[in-house]
């Protein structure tokens, strides 16, 4: 049986579990759920959502155990390839009555659009199989996954967070699984004869239950993560909509089931799909990682014939027999499939070790060199009424294979390369744009709120109303309801604005994680904690200070970790536009205050101006240039004209100009020059406000001209909806 690594003390297991949960949350995987019927005695009783958790105790296979399993998995993949080739080709299985015609036509997973078309390079590039072992040590397969197999990305993610949280101690180190990515890249590149093919990862978007895996795999492979709206078929070729125009697509690594590919030929069940993509495939102009029609191998109605079909076509019966579960699980479901009860393993849950049945999902990739099985996988612990074929674990286990790393998974040598730095889907560009705006606005509001709280705590003069006016200009709108216009109430408004903007940051970043570093992911995870603190009513200096540090860290990571290409320029342009708006709104609010007669003393007014500068992180810049007391004219020189101050209008405008030129937005450059001429020498107090309104219009013009068509407001963040309303 499987050897176990000696378990550490309970306190250490609790510590590891908390760290694993935190790291998964930082990767956006702490909330991965599948909403599926929970069955008891064959009746659907509820819809349940479960988090993805990694157990601090791995599941361990010896080198010999894995060697046998790897051979068995490769055998099942070869059998599946042969069966698919026959079902959509000669149909010897039907002629020989191994599969009855009525059986094949009864399943809704047989794709007529795949019959008789030019044979693809291979039917399957990726393959997964769920296996379970009984207490006697005998292994069984309970499901083959051939349509859009999931789990490989989760295996890589589980291993990554486990290595970071726990590490490998006591001389026990599993075989590496990351090289499987190289194998997958080669397998995908071989699907077309194109030298340096353009490959995309096709996802159902952020609402898909496995989106985290899609994003993680795309990031690791270095390919664009796309959705149906990002792709278009023209002249029987598939093209990717990007900032620079249409770019050809040669291979689609699809993470969606084949019925969601093309609404023109398949019942898309409410999903848009890519109209015409199957015709492009039939013409040989695009290839799928797993060919259209491969999902028939997952049909419940045909599961009982696959082993016989494999023997009929290949002359051998798989050594890993298939025991497919029925449609209505009762109890621990898998026990009824096996000759003896299923193997159970200890897992750490709620401070105690409990034994649960385990299902392993193993992953294979086909290349021209043969089939490679990843030395590891997903271990999924099952509750009493869980379907073992469906990835809804109470807890997942990292699967270790002991022994030295085997031979290279693919032959050494460089893979075909395509430079994707300049390839940014317009949908992703729009998310990056709103991400940049929300990040800058949240940072500005958090900084000014922290300054306001600090000054209030120091009890410096009667300037609360002045500071409240300034803060409301950035955080507004105010008043809300019957609330009195006071600094404490305005701070509450500012906290609510931070909550909304950080929520937008988290939502937008989730859809463009392939552009962000791993460190950025961890910062985002902590940012979510800061947002939760504000929601819980913690609105003190320390809370805003911690949030500001995280926002500043995220800004720095964006600036220094994202490759300088169109994606970076879009995000930077968004930040600079928002920074300019913050300055203009602040000046529009401050100018009437400074210019009118006010009962506050001169010292209070000076303090107000210092707060204004500090709110824009420009107090040091002011002191380096002006050695006199704080004066309004010098403040304007610092925040408007000082091109050396990165917080000034002049600096932001120049960066916007450069970014606009970099993405080829010529009309934006011309409009910006017109706006700059208005704020350089305002002739009336409303000039800054007018310039802010013009800049908002310009920002919205960018989304309409160069970014994705605005989606249904119900499907985007509240910040997007609110900004569009204001900017329009």
Beta strand count: 16
- CA radius of gyration is 29 Å
Strand content: 5-15%
Globular, elongated, flat, extended or rod-shaped: what is the shape? Answer: elongated
The major sheet is characterized as: 7 strands, mixed
Our count of helices gives 22
Residues in helices, as a percent range? 40-55%
Low confidence ranges = 31-48, 327-331, 710-715
Structural class: alpha/beta
Mean pLDDT: 82
Amino-to-carboxy terminus distance: 66 Å
Number of domains: 2
What is the topology?
Blueprint: H1 10-26, E1 36-40, E2 43-48, E3 59-61, H2 63-87, H3 92-95, H4 101-106, E4 126-133, E5 139-145, H5 152-165, H6 180-189, E6 199-202, H7 211-221, E7 224-226, E8 231-234, E9 237-242, E10 245-249, E11 251-254, H8 277-282, E12 287-288, H9 306-314, E13 344-349, E14 352-367, E15 370-381, E16 396-401, H10 426-457, H11 464-475, H12 487-510, H13 518-535, H14 541-561, H15 566-595, H16 602-615, H17 619-625, H18 632-641, H19 649-662, H20 666-679, H21 687-705, H22 718-727
Parallel strand pairs: 3-16, 6-7, 6-11, 11-12
Antiparallel strand pairs: 1-2, 4-5, 4-14, 8-9, 9-10, 13-14, 14-15, 15-16
Helix pairs in contact: 1-5, 1-13, 2-9, 5-7, 10-11, 10-12, 10-14, 10-15, 10-16, 11-12, 11-15, 12-13, 13-14, 15-19, 15-21, 19-20, 20-21
